[in-house]
Design goal:
It is a single chain. This protein is mainly α. 72% of the residues lie in helices and 0% in strands. The protein is built from 9 helices and no strands. The chain is globular, with a radius of gyration of 19 Å. The termini are far apart.
């Protein structure tokens, strides 16, 4: 039997999400490097000490936002038996790129910079959630005979991850002149062809 949440537990969870959501909003508006912890706290109506109860640093916010993005994405995974593995993959890619677009250009650009400068591991930002789903799709496609090439799951995931980072880099370079959903779907749809 799980322990009932106290009023204090609920309030702490609400404060955490308020800080996280406001951070994302401010990063989208002003860019990661222009937002200070003081601005986040002022916008949330809390003290800096409260911020540090939940986060180690401003960089920690980006880590947590990336994890949140991947957890949100995991709710979009489909295990529909009536669709082919390729159809599910393309649906997943579209959902992923739309979610990236929704989180905004500024967040994606700063996330990409952080990946490079902070040597952030995939496990730390929840990429294992995506990896597991892609592995499921690849195994399902192989088992049904839809995917005939025997490319290792890890090798495919590395190619997928490199392509996603390339798309994000192009979006960062091209600014808002780049249709991240269209270009991301196009690039990522090509790599599934390596399995057919």
């Amino acid at each position: 039997m799980s322990k009932k949440q106290t009023k204090r537990d609920i309030q702490a969870e609400q404060t955490y999400h308020k800080l996280l959501d406001m951070s994302l909003e401010l990063v989208k508006r002003h860019g990661y490097h222009k937002v200070t912890i003081s601005q986040i706290c002022d916008a949330c109506g809390c003290a800096k000490g409260t911020f540090y109860n939940y986060f180690d640093s401003k960089t920690d916010i980006l880590y947590r936002l990336a994890i949140q993005l991947n957890e949100k994405l995991s709710t979009m995974f489909s295990y529909d038996e009536t669709k082919s593995a390729k159809e599910l993959y393309l649906q997943y890619v579209y959902s992923y790129m739309e979610l990236v677009k929704e989180d905004g250009y500024a967040f994606s650009k700063n996330y990409l910079q952080m990946l490079i400068s902070e040597s952030m591991s995939g496990e730390k930002v929840g990429l294992n959630i995506q990896k597991e789903y892609l592995f499921y799709l690849l195994d399902r496609g192989r088992n049904s005979g839809e995917f005939t090439k025997n490319i290792d799951n890890k090798e495919f995931f590395n190619l997928w991850q490199a392509t996603v980072l390339g798309v994000l880099a192009m979006w960062a370079i091209e600014d808002n002149n780049y249709d991240v959903t269209k270009e991301g779907c196009n690039a990522l749809s090509h790599i599934i062809k390596t399995m057919i």
